[in-house]
Amino acid sequence: MIQNRRSTLINFLGLVLGLTSFVIIFSWIRTEYSMDRFHENKGQLFQLVILFPNGILDSNTPYALAPEMLNTFPEIINYSRVVRLETQLNSSFDFFPEDPDNEPVYETKIARVDTAFFKMFSFDPVHGTGQYTLDRPDGVILSKELAHKYFGDENPLGKQILMNASELLEVTAVVDIPDNSQLKYDLYLPVTESIHTSWTWRDPSYVMLHPDADKKEFESKLVTYFNETLPSELPGNHQLKLVALEKANLAFGKRKEFLLFSGIAIMILLIVAINYMNLSTANFTKRIREMGMRKIIGATPRILRNQLFAETLIQSLAALFIALFLTELLLPRLSTLFNTSVQIGYQDNPIILLGFLLLILVFSLLAVTYPVLVFTRGYPTTILRETFVKGNSRSNVLLVTTILQFTISICLLISTMVVIRQVQYAKNTPPGVDVENVIKVPLNPQLGRQLNSFMDEIKAHPAVEGLTAGQKNPINEDYKTNIDWPGRDPDTHPLVRYSICLPTFPTFFGHEIIYGRLYSDTISADLGRFLVNESACELLGKENPVGDRLNLWGIEGEIVGVFSNYHHISVHSEILPHVVTVNPRHYRHLRYLFIRIAPENQAQTIAFIKETFRKFSGDFPFSSEFLLDEVEHMYSREVRLAKVLGTFAFLALLISCLGIYGLARFSVEKKVRDLTMRRVFGASIQRIILLANVDMLKRIVFSLVVAIPLSFFLLERWLRSFAFRTDLSWWFFVLGGTLGIIITIAATLIGIWRSLQQKPTEVLKQI
Q1: 415 near 650, Cβ under 8 Å?
Q2: pLDDT digits (tens, 9 = 90+) for 202-237
Q3: Which residue has better confidence, 676 or 619?
Q4: End-to-end distance of the chain based on CA atoms, in angstroms?
Q5: Residue 94 domain-assigned (yes or no)
Q6: In a domain, 200, yes or no
Q7: Has residue 594 got a pLDDT over 90?
Q8: In a domain, 193, yes or no
Q9: Non-local CB neighbours of 320 within 8 Å, separated by 6+ positions
Q10: Is pLDDT at 592 greater than 50 in this prediction?
Q11: Triad 138, 139, 141: Cα angle to 5°
Q12: How many domains is the chain partitioned into structurally?
């Protein structure tokens, strides 16, 4: 190894990069796979989900469903709903209400849960028992992190917290919620009485089955129960299913990512193994005479094999520990990139480290097998003559492995370009509503009682170009409910997206009217009337349903207009039927004020809005957010995927380039006499370069023949997950193939450049 320092360094660098990539991906997969697997009763814990006819799972279920099922099925021994308050209202908290100078703050990670929550799920209490403290209607449980944030090392049990300037709560427990839990919140409150009988679809529900219950048999009962027994407003054309809690994280959107990155990890490891085998073969070729002399003086093939294996194992172990060290350094950045707390986990679980060591052992055995067979099975005289390197079988092995390496690299290159293109397509697709320069200000009960006066004062500012209020964001927020209309098929109970808003809401956001009209500016003119989108028209079975009647929550009204579809959530999803209503009965549900401000001096304008807000809201904290940030958030997952895939595709290409460079040097060194003689007899440098590249170009062309149809197949399947997608154009594959050829030629040229710089006389002296 010492005699071939450059080749050894190249091989080692490729090994470090590959193993680091593998450890990083493994750490993320382990983190995702470990979600909620620590609960003592994990085999009995299930999430209730709704299976739509198109195969999509919905994690939101009616609030009253779980209690109803507990009373119906003996298989269920407990249940808990998780009502996420950040999706319903904006909750402010004063953690020191006795201090008049203390200002309330907003906390968003809040959930109302049933009393059985901490009996079903295994979370360790830091203070208090954590199990029976939610029986109190004024009790609140804090996460360890939030307790430390506001109270430091002090025990907060018995401390009082003022919620929404009106509700006094008492801290009854502090619990430690692991990062690898989908149920991690900062504040846990008991559910309200109104939730128990509500059939509103909004939040997840969980059940605990009897240890002896048969899941498949129980699910078969649910088909009849869901379609025939439950209230008529539930969708009878959907299915009620159970998803094991430990698998729920993968069931809702991450399974494909899980498989994708698992595949990338395997491909990178395969590239590294191929590189290592090919470069080891090349390096061992330079040790022919050493091996021959060892055989002459009595070294057996076993001794030679052990020597080569030991060298490989030492090198691989060193690369592994460097990879672990680099991954540890990168963990904070990785957690940000993957949007989850990534941990390797070998400190707490020695089996993981043992697994890595076993992987290195197997890797070393496989990587060294071929060169060991090459260099230990020949006769000493043959080895000394170096004639064995010309064997066809050995050349075929190098050919196949190099082609496989090129194929994987090109697939990753093409895939990265397509993923980035889809992300750009998604981000550049107009949402269909005007959210430019619009800020969102959360409302509160006190402000809601003075909403008209507050809005009048805000309007007076010259930089305020318009304002309105609504129950939810026009984008990146999705609630569903049932509607009824004359002539509806009684066997179907479709779900629609709904919005409660002021009459100015549709005009403010620029809803494009197709039929009928938008709302007038006064509530009285359109009280109880509806606007619907194009998808709702398809649901109703009419192109123009203006004048038809709908029934929403027992309120019957007329459809006065049809507006064009817009992307209220990401392009992953189809555009749902959407119903908009104006009804003062439900104005207590208005959650946001939307204000369009001039692009100039926006900081000063927001400061004025904040000052006015405090004038009307008292102790409620102020917050604001631009809706364009919501658009960015809609596609944060795709952006993250593109960054991660691009990073690992680059690393895979870099590792491949190191292998190409090493093989090019090896190939030229084998042909150095032939190439030098051609130069002596007048061959140009260009001709020499062409001869040196021809073998590599043949391999990459063959790789393209395999990689292009394979990439097309895989990418077409991935793009099917988007309801709206970019075209899988031919230029992706042409560009990917062209870049692959350019990279191969460049790496080859770098590999042979040193040999081309030598004078022919110096080369001939060395032969």
Answers
A1: no
A2: 788 999 998 888 888 888 888 777 766 665 555 556
A3: 619
A4: 22
A5: yes
A6: yes
A7: yes
A8: yes
A9: 19, 356, 357, 360
A10: yes
A11: 150
A12: 1
